[in-house]
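Collaborator request log, item 7. Partner lab (contact: R.S.) asked for a structural prediction of Cobalamin biosynthesis protein CbiX to inform their binding assays.
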Amino acid sequence: MTKRALILFAHGARAASWAAPFERLRDLVAARQPDADVSLAFLELMSPRLPERATELVAQGITDLTVVPVFLGQGGHVLRDLPLMIDELRAEHPQLAVRVAEAAGENAAVLQAIADYCIGALADGR
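Returned to partner:
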């Protein structure tokens, strides 16, 4: 049986409070996907970092991993840093099937939800 995991991948920050919305997102996703391990991992400044978290998941028997970059755009971190990390993961854990989703902000449904929020904020300002 395939054991699945989903990592929400974010940048990280020095202030611990910065992670709060990402933790809420993780909890919302986990509640809707109880058959998968849903966790957060960070590029820098916070832990766990992506390679550490993936290694922990492999040690727990995960064989199928999806990484969702929770970034609004595809800057250098998504275009350069993340692919390098993914290549290293695949080399270190050849038994692990790894997929990477598009950056959240590149998805049409996410952009529509943000647009709806912005329009709602404008309407609330009357």
